[in-house]
Amino acid sequence: MNTVNRPVASVDAEKLPPPETPWQEFIRVYKKDRLAVVSSIVLAILVVVGISGKVFTEWVVVFDAEVVRLPDKFLPPLSTPSVDIIPAPDLPQLGVYVFGTDELGRDVFARMLQGSFVSLSIGFVAVGISVVVGILLGGLAGFFGNIQLLKIMTVDTLIMRFTDVMLCIPTFFLILTVVALLPPSIYNIMIVIGLFGWMGTCRFVRAEILALRQQDFVVAAEALGLPKARIIFRHLVPNALAPVLVSTTIGVATAILTESGLSFLGFGVQPPYATWGNILTDGKGFIFDAPWLFVIPGMAIFVVVLAFNIVGEGLREALNPKLRRR
Amino acid sequence: MLAYIGRNIALRVVLLFIVSVLIHGLIHLAPGEPSAVDPSNPRMKPQDIAKIRAAFHLDDPLYLQYVYWVRDLARGELKSFKDNQPVLGKIWRRFLNSLPLFICSTLIVWTLAFPVGIQAAIRRGAVFDRSSTLVAYALISFPGFFLSYIMILGVVEVFHVPVIGLRTFGMEGATGAFQFMDRVWHLVLPSLLGALGGIAILSRYVRSQMLEVVSQDYVRTAKAKGLHQDVVIYRHALRNALLPFITMFGLLIPGLVGGSVIFETIFAWPGLGLLGYEAILSRDFPVILTLNVFGAMLTLLGTLVSDVLYGVADPRIRLE
């Protein structure tokens, strides 16, 4: 056997590159998924559009979504306004109707801009509510699970049975029922969508915390006599957040779709608020005469929901150590 | 085994009771009453409203209303507020209409999702995997009714067949073959559209299950023995990857009530979803309540069946 003296890799700690922080590792894995990177750029643009939608249609009215211009009904995208009939302050800001006009001559571009903020805030607030409820209940069940209540059941049993109860209700139908019975208001829709969506988060958080509690660093923290709140919020919750982050991203997408479904059935956000869902619903009546009223909001919802879903999937791959090494 | 099933049924009955109390409370506490559906009707005098409220027990305390509801439901005498028809009969008829739709979509979902998911898992990272992932996400990202409208327009333009409703009105005199084809055409679009979301979700799930199993030692052993690729995948890997889908099957059942509201409304399909929608519009509390509880019952039944099947299918699990 011919033995070649290959230089043994030196294990000098100084010559090794500095160890990757979890954050750097996450970024490296996430970057590999080009689709997810593109989608996150789309989402970043969307957030800017949403905020500018609030600013430019309500605070500093540059694009007025509510001006009715009857001479300019049903104009296709990029058509010029009839300058001689319409008074100058009512003319569209950009000189043309970028996305056309609707059945009242309102500028669809301005309405979409206004709707982007409302649609996004419905998504984020609804998911925010469900995440907060989910983390609280899941954290309680995971951490204080074995405390007895009235000698009948444990906290864990109580919370998880309640989660089971919520899970076995047909969600969309119940949301529809409650939204239809409550007075129509955008806040009710956000709250109801949020309150019927926390069950998944609750289960994830409980499972993660139960698994983490056995680990050495938590035992060490307990042995050091740290206060419970600090153990929960500094040591347990941050480590349990990965699956929550994924389900949050996908939850925003689902909430936007739920809102458009509610709009379609007539229980969505009521005028004067424009959301993408109700622009789309109004547009379906003119699908032959003015297809842009239907296609533009439909495609906008599609692109945004798709971007949220792909980012969610990218996060799942990047945050899952089991998938990462393969 | 029997004790296990018995205990589970008892647990689910308790759950169902809590669910029904919860939904009952939600519906009755929310503002908006059957007597207030038509406030501008000049013929509705305060006495009439009082009479309606008394007839429907709306003035009694909540727990009494719940007792009345359970009593009437158990006797089969529960009447709809809207047309005084027995609720159970109504739901049963609509259930029979929803069933073919549900069965067709389920068949489409399961026959398409498995091949796609398995292939995607085998070719992890290849073009097929990436494109099927993208298509799956695209399918669940469309607002359901947007896609439906476009598909309806497409089908009507290209094939010149009517697709709205259960069947074409006035076809009763046609021969059997024509009537049959008419029913099939009316069934295709709603079941396909109802299936799209399911295909997307289930195929992703099949893919991740297969990925778990393919990296196991016994699969490597089977490959090392020189077995054919197909034998390894379909006989060794797939069988073990199949287990979690027993659970999925149970979870699909509630889609019979809730998932179909939008599609049944679009296609004017007189099923459970549309019944629920009409009931909500007319504040028909007994129908709304019974439908919600019916949905919950289906879910509980589904989870029970999948729990028991799991024990039968997986020798590692012993039901005590």
Counting helices, strands and paired strands, the structural category of chain A is mainly alpha
Average pLDDT, all residues of chain B: 84
Number of helices of chain A: 12
What is the residue-averaged pLDDT of chain A?
Answer: 84
Q: Name the chain pair whose interface involves the most residues.
A: A-B, 40 and 47 residues
Low-confidence stretches of chain B: none
**Oligomer class:** heterodimer
Q: Note the main sheet of chain A.
A: 2 strands, antiparallel
Q: How much beta of chain B, percentage-wise?
A: under 5%
Topology order of chain B in helix (H) and strand (E) letters = HHHHHHHHHHHHH
Tally the helices of chain B: what do you get?
13
Major sheet summary line of chain B: none
> What is the helix fraction of residues of chain B, given as a range?
over 70%
Fraction in helix of chain A: 55-70%
Q: Return the string of H and E elements of chain A.
A: HHHEEHHHHHHHHH
| Class derived from helix and strand content of chain B | mainly alpha
Q: What gap, in angstroms, lies between the N and C termini of chain A?
A: 35 Å
